[in-house]
Design goal:
heterodimer; A: about 90 residues; alpha+beta; two-stranded antiparallel sheet; about 50% helix; about 15% strand; extended; B: about 260 residues; alpha/beta; 8-stranded mixed beta sheet; 11 helices; 8 strands; binds adenosine-5'-triphosphate; binds magnesium ion
Chain lengths: ~90, ~260
C-alpha cells in the first residue's frame, strides 16, 4: 500500500478479505441471503411493534458466527415508558 | 490399525495431490506402510508427482471392474519399499467407481497397511463423494485466498452433514512476506474463519515445482521449507506433537544463506 493510499485510509487487503469472508461464510452456512435477512427483520419488527413500542431504526438484527455454529442475534432497544408519556 | 485418510479441498489446484505425495513419502520414510490411491479419475496426476508414471499397468477402475487383482494395480515406489500407489484411470470418468467400491477396496487394504491416503478430485460431486466414503479422517487443504477458504468451508460443512469427524486443515502456499504486509490472510485468520484444527502450514516454495518436475516429492529434500512442513504434518498425523515452524522471511533468508543455496 502506498503512502498516498494510507493517507486516504484504505484498508489492507487481508483485512478486507477477512471481513468479506466472515459475511460470506455465515450466509453460505445458513443459506440465509441478505435479502432473506431483510425480510425476516421486517416481519420481526411488525410482530414486535404490535405488542411494544420500538424504534425501528435502532433495531439491529444480524447473523453471527460462534465457532462452526451460527446465531441469529437481535438487539431491539425498547422505548422507556417515561419517554413515551412525555413524547 | 490402519487409517484411511482422504485429502480434499473443494477448490481445484490448492495442493491436494502435492500434499498426498508428500505425506505419503514422509510417512513411509518414517517407517509406516503406506498405500496412496489417486481418486481423480480422468485427471490422473499423483503418478507423475511421485515419479511412477512409467510403471503403470493396471489402475483403480481395472480393480473395481475385476480386470485385475488389487495387488496387480499397486505400484511400488522407486525409493521407499513400503510405499505403493494405486493410479487413477485416465480414460474413464468418476462414475466408473462408486462410494461402496471405495469402501470395499479400502477394507481389503486395511490391516496390512498403516495408512491409506486418498487424493480427492476438486469439487463436491461424485469423485469427492467416492474419496470420502471410506475415510476415517479427512484433511482439507486450502490456500490463504478468499475463494479457496470459502470452498474449504463448504467441504467442511458437507463432512459435518455426512457425520464424518471434524476434518483438520492444511494451509498451503502461505507467503510470509505478503502476510507481513497484510496483503494475505494469515494462518490465524484462516483458522479463525474456518474454526477447525490446523494440522499444518506449508509455505509457498519454488522447491515444490522443482520436485514435481523431477517426480521426487519435496518432503525427501531435507533442506526444503515446504518439505519440512510436510514432514511435520506426517509426524502430527502419527500423533507426535511437533511445534509449528516460524515462517517469517528472515528465518527463510538465514536458512537459505547458511544452507548455501539459491
Ligand atoms: N507450497 C507450494 N509452493 C509452491 N507451489 C505449490 C505449492 N503447493 C502446490 N504448488 C503447486 O500448485 C499447483 C497445484 O498443486 P496440486 O496439483 O497439488 O493441486 P491439486 O489440489 O491436487 O489440484 P487439482 O484440484 O487439479 O487436483 C502445482 O503446480 C504445484 O506444484
Ligand atoms: Mg490433484
Amino acid at each position: 500500500m502506498s503512502f498516498f493510499e494510507r493517507l486516504r485510509g484504505r484498508k489492507r487487503s487481508a483485512d478486507s478479505a477477512k471481513e468479506r469472508l466472515q459475511l460470506v461464510l455465515v450466509h453460505d452456512r445458513t443459506d440465509i441471503t441478505p435479502a432473506v435477512l431483510e425480510a425476516l427483520k421486517d416481519d420481526l419488527l411488525t410482530t414486535i411493534s404490535r405488542h411494544v413500542e420500538i424504534d425501528p431504526a435502532a433495531v439491529h438484527i444480524a447473523l453471527e458466527r460462534d465457532g462452526r455454529a451460527q446465531r441469529l442475534i437481535a438487539d431491539i432497544p425498547l422505548r422507556s415508558v417515561s419517554r413515551r408519556r412525555s413524547g | 490399525m490402519s487409517t484411511v485418510l482422504t485429502i480434499g479441498s473443494g477448490k481445484g489446484g490448492v495442493g491436494k495431490t502435492t500434499a498426498v505425495a508428500n505425506l505419503a513419502v514422509a510417512l513411509a520414510a518414517a517407517g509406516e506402510k503406506v498405500v496412496c490411491i489417486d481418486g481423480d479419475i480422468g485427471l490422473r496426476n499423483l503418478d507423475v508427482i511421485m515419479g511412477l508414471e512409467n510403471r503403470i499397468v493396471y489402475d483403480l477402475v481395472d480393480v473395481v471392474e475385476g480386470r485385475c487383482r488389487l495387488r496387480q494395480a499397486m505400484i511400488r515406489d522407486k525409493h521407499l519399499p513400503e510405499l505403493y500407489l494405486i493410479p487413477a484411470a485416465q480414460t474413464r470418468d468418476k462414475s466408473a467407481v462408486s462410494p461402496s467400491d471405495m469402501v470395499r477396496l479400502c477394507d481389503e487394504l486395511r490391516g496390512e497397511y498403516d495408512w491409506i491416503l486418498i487424493d480427492s478430485p476438486a469439487g463436491i460431486e461424485r469423485g469427492f463423494k467416492n474419496a470420502i466414503a471410506p475415510a476415517d479422517r479427512v484433511v482439507v487443504v486450502t490456500n490463504p485466498e478468499v475463494s479457496a477458504v470459502r470452498d474449504a468451508d463448504r467441504v467442511i460443512g458437507i463432512l459435518e452433514a455426512e457425520e464424518k469427524d471434524t476434518p483438520s486443515l492444511v494451509i498451503n502456499r502461505l507467503n510470509p512476506a505478503m502476510v507481513k504486509r497484510h496483503d494475505m490472510l494469515s494462518a490465524d485468520d484462516v483458522v479463525d474463519l474456518l474454526a477447525v484444527k490446523v494440522i499444518g502450514i506449508v509455505p509457498e516454495d519454488d522447491d515444490v515445482i522443482v520436485a514435481a518436475n523431477r517426480g521426487t516429492p519435496v518432503a525427501l529434500d531435507p533442506k526444503s521449507r515446504a518439505g519440512q512442513a510436510f514432514r511435520n504434518i506426517a509426524q502430527r498425523l502419527k500423533g507426535v506433537d511437533v511445534p509449528f515452524m516460524a515462517l517469517d522471511d528472515q528465518g527463510n533468508l538465514w536458512q537459505r544463506l547458511f544452507a548455501g543455496r539459491k
